[in-house]
Amino acid sequence: MKTWFNLFNLLALFTLFFVTDSLYRKLDLYEKEYNAKRLICAVEYAAEKAFYDSIGTRSNQTDYISPIQVVVDPGKTLESFDVMMELNYGLSQSEASDICIEDSIAGMSLITNDGYYLARLQKTGEDAMRLYWSPKYPYSYEKEEGGVVYTYGVTLADERWYRIWNKGGTLRFAKGDSYGDAGAAGALSDSLRRQIISQTLTDAVALSIKENARSGQEIGYSFYIPSRQTLSGINAVSSPSFLVVMNSAPYAGCDETLDAAITGIKVIRKVRTVGYVNESGERKYCYETQQAGGTCDIVEYFSSPEAAAKAGYTADYRFIFNKIIYEETAY
Amino acid sequence: MHGFLSRTAGLVLVFLLLVVAPLLDTYGVQEMENRMETLNDVSEFLDKVTDKGEITEDDLNAFYLAVESHGMMLDVRVERLVKTATLLDDGTVSTAYIMADDRHSLNVGDIVKVELREMSTTPYKKLLNMFLRLETRTYGLDMAKMVR
Fold first, then answer.
1. Which residues of chain A have a CB within 8 Å of the CB of B21?
2. Nearest to A112 by CA among A60, A160, A51, A159
3. Which of A4, A218, B37, B130 has its Cα between 20 and 30 A from that of B6?
4. How do the domains of chain A map onto residue ranges?
5. Which of A163, A189, A187, A193 is nearest to A176 (CA)?
6. What is the pLDDT of residues A114-140, one digit of tens each?
């Protein structure tokens, strides 16, 4: 009888072990799924803000729907991305948090109409590694004709092109606005342009991921940007976009995330910052139309509060929380 | 004596197997599903108000009801953050996000931030604490999105 009890206890112990193990695995799976979904949302929100802050204002008549008109400046992109990720994970806004966020980025690219920027990992004064933007690289391809190698450059949304070649030791340059122009006819076409851009971006981002990989980190990405929309629904890059590929994010509870976020939002309105001198003679700024009904004349227009601050203006807290009347702004 | 001990151990094991393990499983899965649904509610709310460009009292009431309906008692805070920049003495520009009193009207570029903090314990956490003496962290969720 005792033997039966012992056998039963042993069996129960084994069963308990398996039940506990299965419960642990199940809950771990749920937690990973939750963390991954939260990270995807956070990256999407942060990428959207970073891209919005990268867009500059060229003139009153800037049409943000047209990719040709959009001026993209990467100056504030990384900072905005870091701040949004910190807000999304309740982290303090500090350099330590920035380093932690940037450690989780495998690759980042800001795609503009006539070229792209890549975020590259560089060592700072201390031991920390930070991401910095590269110079703008063009979408280019080479073609050999009659023993001369021509390098063509194309743009994302129109038929503007340029060509550089070496003739007798001198670099020659030609450019045009249509693929029918002499110099581009027969060498460039719409489909070739899409292929050049897709191939250039795919290679550049894949190389950037490899270069930015921290020591001992595995690179398991199979990265591809199609030249036209695929049947499975992956879109080609056809307008200025912001691309982020995330890696392991310890602050998000994710050991490994093989996920990419491409944000190619069409910014339909971008409100300018206005600088003015208030009744007390102080230089203040707020957003356009926020001081509607105010008596101060606008002195200067700026593309961002940072630009206004740099010019010596400070935020006017009487107006800066007011609703902006979009009908009256130029967009 | 030995027979008595094995019977007691058997009874304890049966109790663990037939009562505690299924309860932990059910409550654990329920808790994880609740968290996932709460995350969905928060992202849905953020998408809605940042697309609309305003937060009405109806939006807030519907959101509070949605997040509280998953069995967790949560403290919910919705904030509107406005970006400002200040020139520092060393010539650099410091960017700060200031919480606005008026969170109903939103401007493009503002950030809507949602903070959730769990105010009470759940059956799953009680069970974990009772049988395994595990103290798990209270649930919290921060999410922020820019107004488009």
1. 16, 19-20, 23
2. A51
3. B130
4. 28-134+204-263, 273-328
5. A163
6. 889 998 888 776 677 788 888 889 998
Q: How far is CA A104 from CA A37, A124, A127, B15, in A?
A: 16, 17, 17, 45
What are A154-213's pLDDT values in tens digits? 988 888 898 999 888 888 899 888 888 888 888 888 888 888 888 898 888 888 888 877
Domain of B53 in residue numbering reads as 2-146
Distance CA A291, CA A308 (A): 16
Point out the residue among A26, A270, A308 whose CB comes nearest to the CB of B29. A26
Q: What is the ipTM of this complex?
A: 0.91
- B29 contact A CB<8A: yes
Asked if B6 and A7 touch (Cβ cutoff 8 Å), the reply is no
Residues of chain A found within 8 Å of residue B35, distances taken between Cβ atoms: 34
Cβ atoms of residues A120 and A134 within 8 Å? yes
Whole-angstrom CA distances from A263 to A48, A89, A240 are 6, 20, 9
Among the residues of chain B, which ranges form H helices? 2-15, 21-52, 57-68, 123-127
User: Please, what's the b/e burial string for A103-124 (b: 16 or more CB within 10 A of its CB; e: otherwise)?
Assistant: bbbbbbbbbbbbbbbbbebeee
Show Cβ contacts of residue A232 under 8 Å, excluding neighbours closer than 6 positions.
none
Q: Using alpha carbons, list the distances in angstroms from residue B123 to B36, B72, B126, B134.
A: 17, 10, 5, 13
The C-alpha of A129 sits at a distance from chain B's nearest C-alpha, in angstroms, of 22
Q: How far apart are CA A277 and CA A274, in angstroms?
A: 10
What stretches of A112-218 adopt beta strand conformation (E)?
Answer: 116-123, 129-133, 139-145, 148-154, 161-167, 170-176
Give the count of domains, chain B. 1
Quote the pLDDT of residue A74.
Answer: 80
Two tokens, residue A236: 């080609």
**Whether the Cβ atoms of residue A116 and residue A109 lie closer than 8 Å to each other:** yes
